[in-house]
Specification:
Two copies of one chain form a homodimer.
Chain A: E1 2-8, E2 14-20, H1 22-26, E3 30-34, H2 36-39, E4 59-60, E5 66-72, H3 75-83, E6 86-91, H4 98-102, E7 134-142, H5 145-151, E8 154-162, E9 174-180, E10 183-188, H6 193-203, E11 211-215, H7 231-241, E12 245-248, H8 251-255, E13 263-271, E14 277-289, H9 295-305, E15 314-323, H10 337-355, H11 359-366, H12 385-395, E16 407-418, E17 424-431, E18 437-441, H13 450-462, E19 469-471, E20 474-475, H14 490-514, E21 525-527, E22 530-532, E23 538-540, H15 541-548, H16 551-554, E24 565-572, E25 587-599, E26 606-616, H17 623-643, E27 648-649, E28 652-653, E29 672-678, H18 700-712, H19 723-737
Parallel strand pairs in A: 1-12, 10-11, 14-15, 18-19, 26-29
Antiparallel strand pairs in A: 1-5, 2-4, 2-6, 3-5, 7-15, 8-13, 9-10, 9-12, 11-20, 13-14, 16-25, 17-18, 17-24, 21-22, 22-23, 25-26, 27-28
């Protein structure tokens, strides 16, 4: 195995004139140098559109865009070789924000936009608008928006902005690729092995069965390891080097690979005199950077979710994806919801204060009820939104007034269609002849605890201790198909698969034990590794498998020592023409946040004193891990609410590292915090479970901004709420007052 | 990963008094030294009996018995460390042949023999006889042997011996073991991954799901890599070294790990005046070396097969397994048949010559007919034995007299129950969304071409080119259960599994295409990756999977881009109480050999001029590989017939290497040779296939010995027919004559 390193563009936008790799190739220890010459015939790729090449072909489009790559015997040699590659650039004018990108006659990030040939796409959306930087747009309306505004007593209009933030997984993107004859083997830190398999087969023009993606435990994903990232480069380098190549990103490189979409949301809301929502118009611009990645899909979901958990008879939503000369933005925990829930929940607070209605009461007036439709054709709301909100409010003593000066409270309620769209998965449960169990699932363990929850479900169904269940490594050659580990879907989607697969094994055990135990199968139960009848007699699974299993009837393969007992379980979301996105949501992921904070009037710094997060889990399969997931989500929320922001200056990303880009530290953790798991058994998953893990992040920003307003009277529409921004707003407000 | 080396006993039999490993442990680069201290609590293990320890506990029982092992950063360091281990032995008297072992008051190889506690066993046979070196015995009789002899006009009695030979796989035994927490992962050169999993789980007291055995292509097996060999030592060393350990045998070490059983067969035959067989008594002694390995099972099969393909109304067979202080003998291509077919076919020739009947005619008088029973309860003979024999005879011009002095011809016909006993297997066929296919099977590719044949069956069933089918690596975590790659079983047993699995996929394709193609499924065919109807319309598999497959009815998991289509196929041998070995044979592996040779009267050297092998293949799935298998088998036969023999002197194995132990070289290949594949579609496998690969080896020795007799008039009952032995026999005959 050799080590790969990537030479990246230092320009935001430039033509690549000449590449001279001779000095790099001559360096002892260098095995291969990959350039556009090698990959110019590979088709373009991308999660939504095919707009990305393995290394730059003619132009670089952002600072960090791969230009060439080196494989060498060690990291240091590869790094040195990069410095020996001469690149002649011709700098081009760049656009590094949505506003710049949408100006008339703005430089174009992709000149061939709208050219179907180069811009093949997977989704139903049309390719972008030729001659512009618009990459995708999504529209939806309900009722009559003009009529709604006409009937409204008050109309509010505000623009909210959301920063560019990075996933910062503890483990950066890492791939080991091997390209032997026409077979590609990848050990990848991916959330999405089967999609990756499919992309690689297309790029390298091999049939799918020649691509094998192996995934061990991954050190954090959060959406940043979905679809396809630097894997094709690793594969191409392995092809050229004729041996396995390991490509591991530095933190800075992961910052230059994928981010969350910075966004601008204009929200215009019409309400009655007593605060009943009548009409709302949302216009959303998502900055997807230099390549679309999942941008169109994220934009679609942002648009779909923009109206929030409220009953609004007249709505109109327009969402745009915009190319800029910045790092590509893709999937990220919350997937488009963050940008819009920040807007709609802040808007609710602004309306409440203007109308003199308590923000809690304003929400209670307008919240959708359980069973009510969000959008026709979609799954009705599957939880009591008011109950959770009241619980959140109560937890921080909402309405009890201030404990101290410069303190304030805020609440928020957010909703996201969970589970992904049109998910399909399968699992295999194999019981070995001693009754221990292997679970084959394409769900990737990212630290979220999916494998623990899935193991628990199997252990429960089969009446065995948890340590008798092992989830195998993910391997597309072997593991049954799964549509990917995203959208908080695993506990529901794969949970149902493993439950069904375990039950298929259970039926085989019961049938085989029925005769020796002399009772019909519905009189038998599985307990402690045994099939038991009502008379207290039992047979161990080992004995069932090795002695009693009639092979043919039981659909089992075995030798003289007993084979493995195999069960399969399948889940498939329903397709529906009535559903706007083609398939009703698997479940609604709903969350409530309540916060109390204190502002330092000297610095503008915010200290969160108490944060209560309420998660609608249905049934917590593993409560400790549900809480861990939710706490993690809240911390992510604190990041983009108070400090995180990737900053571009003159097209250069100035803080792509953990010194200059601040993620929450121990000192930023709320002095007090709590996660409440609401268990209503209202989910479609095993035992009534829902998926969680994204919900907790959603309410943080709007709850904190409201608490800030209640603490010091400033309303900031532009995240993050940095001390400087707060201090300036406070000063400005003093100025106005004085 | 570190490298492991094994310290082996230099005594045939000794007590291990003291082990001092301090100097070895102190050597820089040594990571771990494994001794009996580490493994004394591990249960004993073995293919048939549990009589073997990871390293010697109290005694060593043969030259080569492992005493300790070292793991070090490289091979050289490990090797040096071995030389630094001080072992104090107390030498004990040894037995190195069956005759010595069966003498009254012979030293005992295992003192606790017959002690059920230590000698747990897997098979139905009783443990050996306490106070002797008898390890196992098998008896079978039919009719009334005394009566048969009484009715016979002539009685013949001879003793035939068969040498100890080694498998000599091009790749010696090799294992990489990793023991992490309580999970064992093994990359092993094994033919028998699931059995190995089961043994390792027992030895290291972990549940089966914590043992993962991964098998890549193996460089030759021939039975020498069945069940369990040095793998537990590698695992124990990995456990002690706390990292992965690679243990690769030298050729000499493989010679000291497993061999074929040397044997002595006494055959007593009664015939009528015109050569009709009436009674036959066989007494067989199999030398299993210091540990039983598969010895009892091999002995059982030798006994079962000892009467050959002839109609004999009165038979009695007794077969014994005997412990000696030599290297353990286990499974080896032919599995006990070699030793007995050498005896019964030589006996037929002796009878023929004594009665003045042509050996071909004598056989034709007595051969079982197709459909006739070999032993009641077993599968009737499934092939026309006479036809093959006549074909073989014709191929060398049998009966046409000598072409030259010192030349002679011989023929032979042998039969072995093929496919193993009570085999059970499963396969999974996964069609990816582009119509390419992965085959999950536990069948190990040993160079025999199994994966090619299995791929062809799948390609044929699914109407796709061969290069669209890939057999995955074998991995017990993922691959469905298989009882092992042995007994020429894969084409039949696993062939049926993959055929059934492919057909399960086919049904899903047909069902899904039936509606868009507007025809019922029995009007549709699969061809060139498409489902076609009678009107010439077709849909590609890709389109069927991504567009037309209704998920629920079709038992398919898929996402928006289409999931994998999964089919399972299962095979299970029937159990039968009527069958002596519990299960009728899957098929009969039948082979005929015909040879013409020339003897050098000066040296006694034999040169095979023409060898014709006829194989009853049923249907050759891949004729080229069938021929390759058969040619390889004939060469193995030439080895033990003319030259191969492991020689013990004073308990020491004197030729454990390819300089002193001769395997056939290019110069030993027959001047002319041919393999004829008889295709009668009479097998139980796909398209009428039978298993092959062991048959060709069986007739060689007896055919050659007969040709030798016809060439120079000497009859040798003791293999191999070395020049010296032939020369001495010729001299002796001259002496007798003169």
């Amino acid at each position: 195995m050799v080590h790969g390193k990537i030479l990246r563009s230092v320009y935001a936008h430039a033509r690549v004139l000449k590449l001279d790799t001779r000095k790099a190739e001559a360096l002892p220890g260098v095995v291969a140098v990959l350039t556009r010459e090698d990959v110019s015939k590979c088709p373009l790729y991308g999660a939504a559109y095919k707009d990305q090449s393995i290394v730059a072909i003619d132009r670089v489009r952002y600072v960090g865009d791969p230009v060439a790559a080196v494989a060498a015997v060690d990291d240091d040699t590869a790094q040195e070789a990069l410095s020996l590659i001469d690149v002649d650039y011709e700098e081009l004018p760049a656009v590094t924000s949505v506003d710049e990108a949408l100006e008339p006659n703005a430089p174009l990030v992709h000149e061939n936009l709208g050219n179907g040939e180069q811009m093949g796409y997977y989704y139903e959306s049309p390719p972008g608008l030729a001659g512009t930087n618009l990459c995708y747009s999504f529209q939806y309306s309900k009722g009559d928006i003009e009529f709604g505004f006409k009937k409204s007593a008050y109309i509010f209009e505000n623009v909210f902005t959301f920063p560019r933030v990075q996933h910062y997984s503890m483990e950066p993107h890492a791939t080991v690729a091997h390209f032997h004859t026409d077979q590609i083997t990848l050990w990848a830190s991916t959330q999405d092995p089967f999609t990756l398999r499919s992309h690689l087969a297309s790029i390298f023009r091999v049939p799918l069965h020649k691509v094998r993606v192996i995934v061990h435990d991954v050190g954090g994903g959060y959406g940043g390891k979905l679809s396809i990232k630097t894997e094709p480069l690793a594969v191409a380098l392995a092809w050229k080097a004729r041996r396995a190549v390991k490509v591991v990103h530095s933190v800075e490189e992961s910052f230059k690979t994928v981010t969350r979409h910075p966004a601008k949301c204009r929200v215009k809301t019409g309400v009655t005199r007593d605060g009943i929502l009548l009409a709302q118009e949302c216009e959303i611009y998502m900055d997807t950077g230099a390549y679309a990645d999942a941008g169109p899909r994220v934009t679609q979901k942002a648009g779909y979710r923009a109206q929030g958990p409220y009953r609004i008879p007249h709505t109109k939503t327009t969402a745009y994806t915009v190319y800029t000369n910045t790092v590509p933005a893709g999937a990220f925990r919350g997937f488009g919801t963050l940008q819009v829930c920040w807007a709609y929940e802040s808007q609710m607070n602004i309306i409440a204060h203007k109308l003199g209605i308590d923000p809690l009461k304003l929400r209670l007036k307008n919240l959708l009820r359980k069973g009510e439709q969000y959008i026709p054709g979609d799954t009705p709301v599957d939880c009591d939104l008011r109950r959770g909100l009241l619980r959140a409010a109560k937890a921080i003593g909402w309405g009890q007034g201030k404990t101290k000066p410069f303190t304030g409270k805020g609440i928020s309620c957010c909703m996201k269609d969970g589970g992904g769209t049109y998910k399909g998965s399968e699992a295999i449960v194999k019981m070995t002849p001693d009754g221990s169990v292997l679970v084959l699932t394409g769900t990737v363990e990212l630290g979220q605890g999916a494998h623990t929850a899935l193991s628990q479900i199997v252990a429960e169904e089969l009446g065995i201790p948890l340590d008798r269940v092992l989830v195998t490594q993910v391997d597309t050659d072997f593991t049954p198909y799964d549509s990917g580990t995203y959208a908080s879907s695993s506990t529901v989607v794969m949970g149902l698969c493993v439950q069904r697969a375990a039950r298929a094994v259970k039926v085989q055990l019961l049938r085989a034990a029925s005769k020796p135990l002399q009772e019909p199968i519905n009189h038998l139960i599985l307990k402690n590794g045994k099939v038991c009848n009502r008379k207290g007699q039992s047979i161990s699974y080992r004995d069932v498998i090795t002695a009693h299993l009639g092979s043919k009837a039981m659909n089992i393969s075995r030798g003289s020592k007993g084979g493995d007992l195999v069960g399969r379980g399948i889940y498939q979301d329903k397709k529906s023409k009535r559903a706007l996105l083609g398939s009703p949501t698997t479940f609604w992921e709903i969350s409530w946040g309540a916060v109390e904070l204190e502002v330092d009037p000297e610095s503008g710094g915010i200290k969160i004193q108490n944060y209560v997060s309420i998660a609608d889990v249905g049934k917590a399969i593993q409560p400790r891990e549900c809480i861990g997931q939710d706490e993690g989500a809240v911390l992510f929320g604190i990041g983009h609410t108070l400090m995180e922001e990737m900053i571009y200056e003159d097209g250069q990303l100035v803080n792509p590292n953990l010194l200059d880009y601040r993620v929450p530290r121990f000192s930023d953790i709320p002095s007090q915090s709590e996660t409440v798991l609401l268990e209503d058994y209202n989910g479609p998953g095993p035992y009534g479970a829902k998926g969680i893990g994204e919900g907790g992040i959603l309410p943080v920003a709007s709850a904190v901004a409201e608490a800030l307003y209640n603490a010091v009277g400033v309303r900031i529409l532009d995240l993050p709420l940095t001390p400087e921004k707060v201090w300036r707003a406070m000063k400005e407000k003093e100025g106005q007052v004085s």
